[in-house]
Amino acid sequence: QVQLVESGGGVVQAGGSLNLSCLASADTSINTMGWFRQAPGSERQFVCSMRWSGGSTYCTASVKDRFTISRDDGKNSVYLQMNILNPADTAVYYCAAGSYTDIMLYNPQSWGQGTQVTVSS
Hints:
With 121 residues, the chain is mainly β.
């Protein structure tokens, strides 16, 4: 099972930016990696995904004009560049890995431990 470690969370003012990183242990079974988030008292929400083969990406409507998912194949890493952050983006952000279907069904092979993002107004 692939191991995932996130980093890059923190506190930022509204309008600011953060770049999250997720490092995956070497594992040939990675098909898709993605980001989810969970705010206090809310269900976990899909944010963005990237297919390893071909590099196609998809982000949920509420972030697609502000967030960008990218990867570094050589480092087995995926990133989430978040711009124009607002308080509604405050959540724990989780990295996930698995098949595309599993990711979209919220049932990935692996979850990271999460990294806190707090946006102050």
